[in-house]
Amino acid sequence: MEKKGKIKRAAFVYLTQESEVYFLGDDVGYSVQRRPQLGLQYLCAVLESTGINTSIFDQTIVPFDADWIINHLKDFDMVGFYCSDPQEEKVKSYCKKIRGKLSIPILVGGPSTLDNATFLEHGCDFVVHGEGEATIRQVVEYYDGIRKIEDVKGVSYRKDGSIFTSAPQDLIADLDTIPFPDRSKIDVNMYHDYFLFGMQKPYVTIMASRGCAYKCHFCTSYKLWGCRYRKRSVDNVLAEVDEVVKKYDAKYIAFQDDIFGLTNSWIEEFCTKLMKKPYKIRWMAILHPFSVKTDTEKMLKLMRRAGCDTLSFGLQAAHPVILQNINRNPEEPAALAKVLKVARKLKFITAVAYIFGLPGDTKETIQTTIDYSLRCGSTLANYFMLSVLRGSEIGEIYKNKKICELPASEIERLASYASKRFYSRPGTFLDVGYFIMKNPWWIAGVGRNLPSILKRVGFGKPQKKQEVS
Fold first, then answer.
1. pLDDT, averaged in runs of 10, over the chain (469 residues)
2. Residue 221 sits in the same domain as residue 263
3. Are 231 and 96 contained in the same domain?
4. Is the peptide bond before 202 cis (omega within 30 degrees of 0)?
5. Is 466 within a domain?
6. In sequence order, which residues have a C-beta less than 8 Å from that of residue 145 and are 6 or more positions away?
7. 168, exposed or middle or buried, with CB in 10 Å at 0-12, 13-18, 19+?
8. Do residue 231 and residue 303 come from a single domain?
9. Same-domain status, 317 and 443
10. Nearest to 8, CA basis, from 54, 74, 46
11. Total domain count for the chain?
12. What pairing do the DSSP bridges indicate for beta strands 252-255 and 192-193?
């Protein structure tokens, strides 16, 4: 249908992160791990349903500069940027340069907009806070002259020289009503994740839920999603799985939920129905240490039969005091160890994430976490340095005081040491080698990306931190 109104073509832009304190060096690893931007695909689907033509410009795929994107935006009526904390200064720079050359509306959304309207000082017209599907429709209605700016929810904007922040946007109660992400706006074959040893291309990502049931102090997910956990129906998720298999020949799905399934009943229904499909597909899921706490072997067997080959967990710490300091349960390490034991028996690839430099961390507490990681039985371990996210409880509580007594250089050294200890063990080599040999496609695909993988797990000289430009 032909769109009537001012906004007929909209572009969405994803800029690369040029430095990231989560990683041990400055290699942010897009050659190794390049995920499609689901949020932008959702926005495209919403606008396309109203007759607006959309495009996605992903800098991880095309290494453009500001002049290139400005030239391409001449054909569009609106542009929106995704922004996380490590991208903030770069997004602001691009907004400022675009505003100097073009008069089109500029929007910024994403995690970095949490309680943050400063993008308006750099040429942005609307800062979108929180869930974007309903808000983007209302912004378009404002530019089309059918809604007052004061009636657009979930945004910050300038008016008469002052900055205003509107009432929060209502969360979408029924996630099944949202159109599936518009993957026609990207080349699915350009995305991959070589940290998933079972991965094959085409590789896609799906979210079966939004939000998290937990409130970890280092995280902002529960704030970004309105402190609510909302899940899609099993049938709705499976309809999207059908689509990515039939339209894009997807071979591997990475579920990006903060916690996949959450309840045994949802997981059981999903796996049972997926196994009845006329196709086979591999997939991975992110679980909490308390996930599948009951009927553990039954649930993991069902997931394995349904094609799940990788389970990812965020434990963060193994010391009970540190866990309490971040609003986590001290019983999580023991619960996770039991799940990992069953997962190992069932030939899952398992990955556990740890964060060093949490509130109260000392060399001794970090050593407790390292010792746990070496004996818990996971296939992989990821050791991160704490990154204080805008709006997190840690950011608020420790705004003007030290989070822990260890200097950043020592935290980085311990993260690198832990990673080298884990990945230099003969047992790890045997485990990783076993899973790699079961997927020859991975071996053929990884090629020249192996040095980046080694750097990401702590081998190689850490590089000097760079500023985001």
1. 80 82 45 91 97 96 94 97 94 97 97 94 96 97 96 96 95 96 96 92 96 90 83 98 98 96 95 97 97 96 98 97 97 97 97 97 98 97 92 89 93 95 92 86 74 62 32
2. yes
3. no
4. yes
5. no
6. 5, 6
7. middle
8. yes
9. yes
10. 54
11. 2
12. unpaired
